[in-house]
């Protein structure tokens, strides 16, 4: 990365402005050319919209995620190279590490070193993203009052979900199985990581900047985050707080272009933590070789 | 996992049928209760639809991804536990490994051990998924003829994209920068991994089974796949073949419930491979602590 140091911030700013001008021109042309050819297509999940949304006009994405990156210098690249035996061994060891991961919803209140949280989020930030827009914000909540407010919002919505959406029979069945709308881990976990996708950005001239494939990009970053947590010996449960996004966004003072994608409580498993006795599909059920 | 062996396939089948009955009943109730309350919401990206789609009726997802898992036995869980110093060191080392990852589109034709490919896909399969539906299919293409057919399909669409969608000025600018619709890596990479999301599944009784949050789930699995590739010393470029999904699905004989999400060519960087001189956002630009 030493080669990159010649790219001073000023140079980068000039490039950004140039990209903005080029995109604007081509965007105008594109609108004329294709407006009627492409039927309506949504970039943003409807369920993550809220009243303050400013939906972008529909735009086509880049096929390759490096589209905008083409406007900067190119440098030679040589990656790590291992022997074949090393590759097999490394891939096997990594599989065994990640195969021990389970979603854990019984988390203790033991403190976790903040440096580890910084490192796992740094790691998530190495993810690729559409046109290198890096459209993610990781909000780490450690304040007990805020955690409790989040719990109140999530539980209130979840109670409505359970009472309105599920039939009596299902709710009764779930009672026996100890599942309900109570999310104790939102209080006990030392950290809650709320991951927001930035559905658009801002160009230096203040205009909106398309964040191509932002939901896929941020989800990929979350996959890398889950791998980093497992590698560090930390546990979580992947949750998508249905209908809570707008309230949580306002609580956490995130701008309107950010939509909540996932909420990950992070900590150590409680001594009495349990997980469902599930198995995973074998390789032959998920892979096809041609 | 030894504890799980008591769950014989027969037992699992019985549970599945029970889940099916419960879901059907609650689904019927849900429809009556909420039909008018929730405005239209799309689960499936419009751009990945094709003429053979059988869209599911709209359904609400589970908030926690383990919803359906509640119907199986629960077992005590104790994860790996490292000292704080170890956690910090492990998280730092993993960050440094993944921070070396770059999207590489100049891939050599050197063969890669198949066992490594198996292991990285096994690793991706450890990803969490909405209600443990594991809604992914990884199609690994090594046959030169098929790879070339894929290249033809992708390049044809991409040429249309370039000629129709981009303004003359943008195309001219890109010419200087060596970007066009030619994707040589689709021929040269020893493996192409095409990742399909299963937008719905089948219950034992043949009825459609909702795959909650299938796009997010499969994207998370791809994040874990990218981490596994980097760990093994393999390189790729994350691509979303716009408008090619239906043709590639038919070419690879995938069923109509599967939609192409990503295409990853996998191999070693060519000796003369270059990458754009990009930097990543610093931690303070992607993380907010409260």
TrEMBL record, chains A, B:
Q: Where is the composition biased (Basic and acidic residues)?
A: 43-55
- Identify the cofactor(s): FMN
Keyword Lipid biosynthesis belongs to the record: no
The segment(s) forming the Nitroreductase domain are: 99-268
> Which keywords fit this entry according to its UniProt record?
Flavoprotein, FMN, Membrane, Oxidoreductase, Transmembrane, Transmembrane helix
Q: Could you tell me what this protein is called? A: iodotyrosine deiodinase
GO MF annotations in UniProt: iodotyrosine deiodinase activity
- What's the source species for this entry? Zonotrichia albicollis (White-throated sparrow)
Stretch list, region Disordered: 29-62
Q: Does the keyword Magnesium apply?
A: no
EC numbers listed for it are 1.21.1.1
